[in-house]
Design a protein that fits this description.
about 350 residues; five-stranded mixed beta sheet; 12 strands; seven-stranded mixed beta sheet; single chain; alpha/beta
Length: about 350
């Protein structure tokens, strides 16, 4: 057992505290993946000109229709779902820059959001990130076919730390394996457990007044997965030459700030065996002078967290209410042509 450290419209979140008014900086945040249906994500891929431009790039890199495979995917978090999520996140960032005029001072991407972050700040080109995403998905599938096959990462809320400590003490007493995979808010946790222990965990959460949200397979962000980190570092990462980021990037497990290529590479490897800690990221963004947060991705979580809304003016960038399709189509095409000529977003 292990105990580690722990598509919405463009609408500002309400009740941001006055503390954000004294901080003039702006950050773009790419959210981590959560469960979503094809109806939610596919609609944006099909209708939005920015998404269609990014999707065309992804199709060219992979040599097949991401949309068609995503539509037919039978599993949550499949490689095609991951690519679709990446495409939509980048498309929403394109929209934030082109339509809303966002010029961020800082970038961050908890969990899967690291991938879009690496493309946005130019550490890897978008086509490289598409390839990297597909290769890492295959690497993880191969690893979890032979190790921790029965482990899931469970997300749950409304559970105070003392109640979680009591639940974990029960795991210790039984000799049951677990690993902390993240903390998203004061009472919002991610815990990796054996699937046979999941029902007991849910019962303990309910008894403590908490609420179970969803479980992820394959599991994520656990110290026990250090062998997966080494596998990815040895088999996938050598093919990629990272560049220094164009913006400071906040790391998702400890809130540190990286400004060079080596730091981005390490951050993306750390995601395998370091639990994410969104409150530390929030503290770091505040310390960097960020007052406004643009969450650019199909997010139903990070922009809604109390710790986020209490710290920033939050803008969740999603499908706009009004569009001039021809003008946006031309902007998206121009961006796609420019991306083909060099690195970065």
């Amino acid at each position: 057992m292990t105990r580690s450290a722990a598509a919405p419209e463009e609408t500002p979140a309400q009740n941001a505290t006055d503390s954000s008014t004294s901080r003039s900086g702006t950050a773009i945040v790419f959210p981590g993946m959560g469960p979503a249906s094809f109806a939610e994500v596919g609609k944006f891929l099909l209708l939005d000109p920015y998404a269609r431009a990014r999707l065309a790039e992804a199709d060219e890199v992979l040599g097949y229709s991401v949309f068609d495979r995503f539509r037919d995917a039978a599993e949550d978090y499949s490689v095609d779902f991951q690519i679709a999520f990446l495409v939509n996140s980048m498309a929403l960032a394109d929209r934030a820059v082109d339509v809303l005029g966002v010029a961020p001072d800082v970038c961050a991407g908890p969990s899967f959001g690291q991938k879009a972050t690496a493309a946005f700040v130019g550490s890897l080109s978008f086509p490289e990130v598409v390839r990297l995403t597909a290769e890492l998905a295959a690497c993880e599938e191969e690893y979890f076919a032979g190790a921790y096959e029965d482990v899931v990462t469970h997300c749950f809320v409304r559970t105070p730390q003392d109640a979680l400590d009591e639940i974990l003490a029960g795991f210790d007493d039984r000799g049951a394996w677990y690993d902390l995979s993240g903390r998203l808010d004061a009472r919002f946790h991610m815990l990796s457990v054996r699937e046979r222990d999941l029902d007991g965990l849910k019962a303990g959460i309910s008894a403590a007044g908490g609420y179970s949200m969803y479980s992820m397979r394959p599991p994520v962000h656990a110290a026990a997965f250090s062998a997966l980190r080494r596998k990815a570092e040895e088999e996938v990462f050598p093919a990629y030459a990272f560049a220094d980021p164009s913006l400071p990037v906040v790391v998702d497990h400890d809130g540190s700030v990286v400004r060079d290529a080596a730091g981005i590479r390490t951050m993306m490897l750390d995601t395998f065996d370091r639990p994410i800690h969104w409150p530390r990221m929030v503290d770091s963004l505040r310390a960097l002078g960020v007052g406004t947060l643009y969450v650019t991705g199909p997010d139903n979580l990070f922009h809604r967290l109390d710790v986020t809304k209490d710290a920033f003016e939050v803008v969740a960038v999603g499908l706009p209410r009004k569009r001039d399709r021809e003008r946006e189509r031309q902007r998206a095409l121009d961006r796609s042509r420019a991306a083909r000529g060099g690195r970065g977003a």
